[in-house]
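ok posting inputs for the iron/sulfur cluster job
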Amino acid sequence: MEYRQLGNTGIMAGVIGMGSEGLVNKNSEEICRLVSCALENGINYFDMYNSDPQLHRNFGAALGSERKNIFIEGHLCTAWENDQYLRTRDFDLTKRSFENMMRNIGTDYIDVGMLHCVDGQEDFCKVFDGPIYKYARELKKSGVIKHIGVSSHNPVTAKMAAELGDIEVVLFSVNPCYDMVPPSENLEDLWADESYEKALHNIDPVREEFYLTCAANGIGITVMKAFGGGDLLDEKLSPFGVRLSTAQCLHYALTRPAVATVIGGFHKTEEICEAMRYFETPENERDYAPVLSHLEKHSFSERCIYCGHCAPCPVKIDVASVNKYLNLALAQGFVPETVAMHYSLLEHHASECLKCGSCDRNCPFGVHAMKQISLAKETFGY
Ligand code: SF4
Ligand code: SF4
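and the output
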């Protein structure tokens, strides 16, 4: 397992985390087997959007004494009614459900209290101008939750949350298909066939702005739907008409700015093992560029997607990272301190560029990488 900083939270999260979808309708032994397998593989970040009390009890029992070594992203605004999951904005129900979740898991704190599924602007106001956000802040003040997060599928509301100042984590749906789709309050648009009927070009600018805002503000992104619910792994179901491998989907999500961990909805131990093979997969097999640069209808071009395919550089400039920090600075209109710091930590800087043109030639997306490097030198001063 590799571990990354989750924004400025101080949490070092395994880059592969585990969600609760795969635990649904499983008995205690099955949940214990899955959670034990996750722990043995170094998974230390668990998302708990599900509100089933029995699932929580089984999860807590499976964790046992490991609770203190792992991080739980627990959702506010989910409830269990008539034996079913319910998304709610009812304050009393939210409070009762959150308290029940903690009691059933057997914990007196939650690492990230996640305001669940804020996808619409009206809903955003309902959550953030009402008692639920106030409650989340009180929980944080009293140490019951360590950090406040928001889950969303809509980059508009996700960005609004990222600009509030005390949101530290965003759980967001990230994969190359969804990244091309313009923002919508209807999350089903992300996988509706009609969304992909007309040709799409590059990552949607609002999504890109959201990623860059999180990176600039030290907000960590945890990823859901990295495999598009499995569709991206199957050429018949993939909106692109071609399949990506598990490693390519993971690598795509993990190369977005601010992303710390990809939450997998593992149903079987074999699926955890398959995801873990990411760490042994050679760079060329993780590389999603050969697929994304040869799509029939949709296209990525002339805009860096941080794939790293332009390597090697003779002076070892990490062109993808330079581009990422440059785009961060350009999006803000100035060089924020944190971005300047990250840039300074790179081993090699734009000023070392030999102008050999190799990155331009290697980029499958037609990015004028060498020009970007010159602009980075101008922007950062070295
Ligand atoms: S310049 Fe091209 S090859 Fe290099 S990281 Fe950006 S998109 Fe990938
Ligand atoms: S043009 Fe500059 S950044 Fe690109 S590969 Fe050559 S030396 Fe490296």
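notes: The first helix runs from residue 28 to 40. The domain at 3-292 is CATH 3.20.20.100 (TIM Barrel).
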